């Protein structure tokens, strides 16, 4: 599009009808003219992205005093009424592990390029022979709803253990809330970029920064749907596992792969529940089982608020992309069930999902997680 600089947010290659594009104000008139002369239907979803981002950036963490703590000192705690930067999430993890040492432990499994912590949470009542579920969030920095939901899962399993002890008594949970801590912190920084996607490692020989961690896994790497250009949002890193963050995720999963029955990676947006494979239109040999479990999970999700999700595989229902963690988890790590879950919304707010949608999103998605957990319990019988 000559004369128009734009950012593509989302694209449905299956139907070639849905595309979300962000256009700078200086080029809006040119873009509208292009749409009209090309006889392309369009509508404005977000009229002023910058104003919306600035309004949300001003939101501050809520400080809670808790008389139940040993010191009685106030603490910063997640309340899922707003989005929180990495230090608040880490404080939440440390606090919860301290209060519930019989259920939850945290470990430092690696450091990011910029030296931020990569934390692994294990939730378990001990014992051996259990199946496991591995969950991660925060692959793409701008997808704030992802860590917000993953931390909710941790809270639900630990603080609300008594409401459903079977999920922890019979399953070991391994959870990485933010696997791209550098990028995530950059989206919160005053001089950062709220819509940043990649990690923050400078690319040698380029003025550009960052690799898309979810195009960096060594399973059909660079076979489409990624870019060799370092400035691209979907830059694949130049080689598979070029990034320390993807290597940490790899090594962590491989350490528990034999135990793990399900891999869940949370993203936004679009409201898709996706199975492998992303690199091809071909389907996994166990696709029927993957699909049937997804249908039952999404049915419970939809029953909460009526939220609709599309179930399928990435290439058939969204677009082709290679080097994904979910494809690698199934194809190399050998985890039998793997899902990529694109949460709210369908584009009205895009990556700027309003904070008042965090809890509704989390409540409905938790119902889906319960279905997954119940199936994993049944696998061990």
How much strand content do the residues show? 15-25%
Biggest beta-sheet profile: 8 strands, mixed
**Helix proportion:** 25-40%
Oligomer: single chain
- Contiguous low-pLDDT stretches (5 residues minimum) are 1-17, 60-76
Main sheet strand line-up: 5-6-8-7-9-12-10-11
Q: What's the β-strand tally? A: 12
| Radius of gyration, CA atoms, in whole angstroms | 20 Å
Structural class based on helices, strands and sheet pairing: alpha/beta
- Determine the number of helices (DSSP H or I, runs of at least 4 residues): 11
Q: End-to-end span in angstroms?
A: 58 Å
The averaged pLDDT comes out at 88
What are the secondary-structure elements, in order, as H or E?
Answer: EEHHEEHEEEHHEHHEEHEHHEH
Please provide a written account of the structure.
It is built from 11 helices and 12 strands. It starts with 6 loop residues before the first strand and ends with a helix. The protein is of the alpha/beta class. The model is unreliable at 1-17 and 60-76 (pLDDT under 50). Helices cover 33% and strands 17% of the residues.
What is the topological layout?
Layout lengths: L6 E5 L7 E4 L5 H10 L11 H9 L5 E3 L8 E3 L9 H14 L4 E8 L5 E7 L7 E6 L8 H14 L7 H4 L1 E6 L4 H8 L55 H13 L3 E9 L3 E3 L12 H19 L4 E3 L1 H4 L7 H7 L5 E7 L14 H22 L2
Parallel strand pairs: 7-8, 7-9, 9-12, 10-11
Antiparallel strand pairs: 1-2, 3-4, 5-6, 6-8, 10-12
Helix pairs in contact: 4-11, 8-11
Short description:
The protein is 33% helix and 17% strand. It is an alpha/beta fold and 381 residues long.
């Amino acid at each position: 599009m000559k004369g128009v600089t734009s950012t593509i947010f989302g694209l449905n290659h299956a139907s070639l009808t849905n595309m979300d594009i962000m256009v700078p104000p200086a080029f809006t008139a040119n873009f509208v003219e292009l749409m009209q002369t090309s006889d392309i239907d369009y509508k404005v979803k977000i009229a002023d992205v910058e104003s919306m981002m600035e309004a949300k950036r001003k939101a501050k963490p809520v400080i809670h005093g808790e008389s139940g703590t040993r010191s009685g000192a106030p603490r910063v705690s997640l309340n899922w009424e707003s989005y929180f930067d990495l230090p608040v999430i880490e404080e939440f993890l440390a606090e919860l592990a301290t209060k519930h040492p019989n259920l939850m432990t945290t470990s430092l499994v690696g450091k990011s390029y910029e030296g931020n912590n990569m934390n692994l949470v294990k939730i378990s009542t001990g014992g051996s022979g259990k199946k496991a579920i591995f969950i991660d969030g925060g692959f793409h920095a701008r997808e704030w709803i992802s860590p917000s939901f993953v931390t909710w899962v941790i809270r639900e399993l630990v603080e609300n253990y008594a409401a459903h002890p079977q999920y922890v008594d019979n399953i070991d949970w391994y959870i990485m809330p933010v696997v791209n801590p550098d990028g995530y912190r950059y989206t919160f920084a005053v001089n950062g970029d709220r819509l940043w996607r990649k990690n923050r490692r400078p690319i040698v020989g380029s003025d550009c920064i960052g690799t898309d961690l979810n195009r960096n896994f060594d399973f059909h790497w660079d076979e489409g749907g990624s870019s060799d250009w370092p400035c691209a949002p979907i830059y694949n890193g130049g080689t598979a596992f070029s990034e320390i963050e993807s290597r940490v995720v790899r090594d962590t999963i491989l350490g528990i792969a034999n135990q793990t029955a399900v891999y869940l990676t949370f993203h936004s947006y679009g409201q898709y529940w996706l199975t492998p494979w992303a690199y091809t239109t071909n389907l996994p040999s166990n696709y029927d089982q993957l699909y049937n479990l997804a249908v039952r999970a999404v049915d419970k999700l939809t029953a909460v608020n009526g939220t609709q999700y599309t179930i399928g595989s990435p290439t058939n229902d969204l677009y082709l992309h290679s080097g994904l963690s979910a494809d690698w988890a199934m194809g190399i790590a050998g985890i039998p069930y793997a899902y990529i879950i694109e949460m709210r919304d369908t584009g009205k707010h895009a990556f700027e999902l309003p904070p008042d949608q965090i809890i509704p999103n989390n409540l409905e998605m938790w119902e889906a997680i319960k279905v997954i957990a119940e199936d994993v319990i049944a696998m061990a019988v």
